[in-house]
Structures are given as C-alpha cells and as structure tokens.
Amino acid sequence: MSRLVKLMAVALVVGGFAAAAAPWRIARATVSGAFSGGLASDAGAKAVVAGPVTFKLLPRPRLQAAQVSVSAEDGAVLLDAPLLKADLDIPALLRGAWRISAATLVEPTLTVDLDRLAARAPGGPAAGRGAPVMLRLRSGLLRTRSATGFADLVATGIDASATWSGDGGNLVLSGTATLRGTTAHFAGALQSPAQSLTPAGSSASLQVASPLFEFSADGVLSGGTQEQFTGRASLATASLPKLMRTLDGFPVSLASKRAQISGDLVAKPHDLSLSNAQLRLDRARFEGTLAWRRDAGRGLVAGTLATDLLDLDALAGDSLDAPKVGDLYGAPLTASPFGTDLDMRVSATVARFGRVTLEDAALAALVRGNRLELTLDEAAAYGGTVKARAVATLGADGIDAHADLSSKHLDLGLLSEGLSGHERVGGAMTAHAALDGRGDSLRDVVADLKGDGQIGVEGGRLAGLALAQALRRLGRRVPLDADRRGTPTTFDRAHWDVSIRDGVVRIPDGKLTAPGVSLSFGAETGLPDGRVDVHAVAAQTDASGAPLRDGQTMPFDMRGFWAGPLTLVGRGAGGPAVALPLVDGLAAGR
After folding, report:
1. CA distance 171 to 40
2. pTM of the prediction?
3. What is the pLDDT confidence band of residue 195, given thresholds at 50, 70 and 90?
4. Which positions ≥6 away from 464 have C-beta within 8 Å?
5. Which of 1, 126, 196, 485 is the least crowded, having the fewest Cβ atoms under 10 Å away?
C-alpha cells in the first residue's frame, strides 16, 4: 500500500511539474492589464493583445502573447509587436497580481506621427506607481512620419534594452540601430517618463555614435502645450556629403568632409532651432543661428551665419558635378528642384567665388515654392562697391527671371587683373543694369536676356592701345605695328549705354575722351561665351577736345574673348589691315 502511495505521489509531483511547465491559454485581458499597469501606464499609453496568450509557471513564471499593440491615447505613438515574451514578478503573483518584471518584444515596429505629436492637448498623465521593469527590443523598426515627408526616417535592426526603475522614476535605454546602411550605438536616460509629458519636464540625455557621425544632447524633455526638447546638442561627422545622402532630402550640397556643429537646441515635432550655433566645415567657421520648421505645408531651412572667410569654391568643391550641372542648365524646368524652402543669410568679412573677391559681403538665398531669390547686399570690391539681386520664378510656361546689378567706383584695373590675371583696362567704373529673361531652361533664359544699363568710367587706361601715338604715326606713314609697347591710352572719362537683347550685350554709341584723341565705338559681347567684337574710330583732337581740322582718323576693330587674348585689327591711311595682339597689363606703361 505504501508503495502505491509513493508511486501516486511521484506521479502527482511529476504531473504537477509538467502542468507548471506546460503553456496554458489565458485571457487576453490579463496580459493587457499586466503590461498597461507598468511603464505603459506611466507614459500615458494603453496595451491591447489581439493574438493568443499562454502562461507557464516553470522554470519561471512567463507570459507569451501574439499581436501586441501599445499606443498613446492620441495615436501619436504606436508600438506593434508580433510576439511578446514577459517574465512575471513572483511576489506580485503570490499576491494574486499579474505584473511584468521583464519583457522582450520580437520584431516590433514603433511608429511616431509627428503631426499628431505636435497637435497634442496640454497636460499629461498622472505619475504611475508601477514596479521596476526591463524591456528588450529584438530586430525592431522605428518609423517617423509627417505630412511634409521631410522629417520621415526609418531605422531598422533595432536591438535595445530599456530599464525603468518604477514609481515614475528613471528610464535608461541603450542599444544599436541601422539608418540607411549606417549602424549606430545609442544610449539615453530620462529622469521621469511621466514628468516629461508635463510643462515642468524631465532631465533627458541621448548619445549616438557611429562610423559616420556622433551626436549628443543633454537637456529637458517636456510636454504641456507641445512636446519639446531644450538643451545643448552637438553633431560631428567625418563625411558631410555622405551624411547628407543619409538624411535624404536635405536641400543643400557641400563638399566639406569634416563638419562639426553645436549650440542651444529647441526641438519640437515640426520646429528645430539652434541658437549660439558654432559650425565648422573643414577649415571654415561660422557662428549664428539655424532652424528648420514646417511652414504652409513645406519644410523651411533658415539660418543667419557670420564668418571671416566664405570660400564658395571650397564649400562646393566636387559636389558641383559638371555633367549634372550641365543637365540642370539645359533641362526644361517647370517646378522647383528643391525639396524644401530655404532662407539662408551669410555675412562674410571676405567672400570668394572663382576669381572674384568681395569684402564685408552680405549674401542671401531665398527659396519659397517655385520662387528663387539670390541677393548680394552692398559689398566692398576692388576699391568700390557692388550690389546684385536675381529672382527666378518657375511655372508651367518655364522660367521667368529678373536681375538688377550695380557698381560704384569700381577699380577696373584691380577687377581686370583679378578676373583674367592681366590688367587690360583701368579707371573707376560706375554702372547699373536691369535684365529680364524667359525660357524653358536656364540656357534658354540666358539666350533670351533683355535689358538696359549705363556704364561710366573716369580716370581710365587702356592697355596696349596707344591711340594718340598711333594717330601721329598715321600722319608720318609709319606702320601701325612698328612699336607694340607704346604707352597705354589714358582718358579722362568714357560713358556709354548698354543694350542686351537675345543674350547679346551691345554698346551702340560709346564715347571716350583722352588727351589729344577722342574715340567713338560700338561693341558686342555674347553671353555666356564671352565673345568680344568692337568697332571704333579714333580721331585727333585739340587741347579742348574738339576735332582737328586736318587731324588723322583711325578706324579699327578688336575681336576675341574676355577669357582669352583680344586682337586689334587696324586700317590706317588706306593701308592693309594688320593684326595686333593686345599687350596684357599696364605695369609697363605706368
């Protein structure tokens, strides 16, 4: 009898262990309540289980549920997981309560709706009294979305763990994630998840490190009228072009490899601002403010920066791909090529673009929808000042462009030497012009340019063109090319009107007066090839500038290109035409 009792006892024990180790189906509401009563409750979220739920007592109390969904009441944050594995708190279980102490979400998807997050009503949930819990994510996915699409990101391969101390206390998380092929390690802390949803806020920090970039932020995360983070932030990358490709849709392209940026950050769902910003692009350094926000359904990147040296060639570098630029130049445009609006203003002590150098320059680039505006406020250049503004509007009929250009007391000698490497002309130039153009492409706009302007030069010089000396030789029948190193022609003043039609700049009736000589001329130069064709007549004058009755006259032409050599073709006293390459530089004649 005793043997039978022992066998029955063993069988009962084995059966009991087997029953405790076997999964038992339980009500879905049980696991929903267990999960909602912890961290989810403290964060103002609710949990729903749509799939089957099983419970095992051995080797440790564990729940397993399928199709778990955790969401904020306003739908701004949604977490879906096909499988949840959760360990239960044993002391709570002995008291008859289902409370999760640790949980693993397998292949979860976290979706953050930035539009709903920005529209949240003021206030937040009351602080919870939950027990400590550890949450693990395996092969997860994070997706942010918005109406503009500019801030939409997808992070995959998330393996992370979050530990919550309970009773509304500290939340610590760490793990890895992949963003467009770049795997990053991250770690963060939030002092109080519930407090972070109130206007008072909670201390928060985040650090992200990857082979491509490093990011850190330390400040306060708060709710109230709108979710926002306020604090100090910094970002550094060893390859800015690659980072911009990773952040798909960024509106600018720069060639700088190393970049660092830091400042006081205020981040909201549709509004980022960085004040006291320090920006370094390779050797270039900028200070000022930067911001991004959604405005009228489009993203807007704005900034006001200051720098000692703005080298546009160094910043653009190889990012200005010649074939792509050529395609853009010749391709029809009916809509803005920019994915977002732009309002960028930069002031520079010195600004360089190609061979052009400006001082105390203030530049602005403004993109609003299909309208692009570039402005150069009055800047010092080559002993004078320059100012420019260009506006282009894109529509169904193509591009409609307008530009205003002006200069005062510009030293032509410095300008000529700076642009061509040789001082071909000298004097103080004052000029202004207004241009308009239409076309399907930028090439068509340039070919269609129309406009008018005026140019005046005082105290001028013409290199390699000794007009008075040439006229005297004509009277003595001396060949025009007997001495190509004559002194430059100096003149008191010159003025002319400029007409631009169909991409060709024309000077119909220019006048130049110099000691002992006057010059009447007409000229044409093509855009953008820089072709030059000048027809002129020089005549001897007396001391008052009146033509001499028996004075010599000399018609001649100048042909060539601004970027290349100019050739003088003269025809004097009925003799044959002679080609005289113009002498570059005025130094020999000074």
Report:
1. 12
2. 0.73
3. confident
4. 424, 484, 486, 488, 568, 580, 582, 583, 584
5. 1
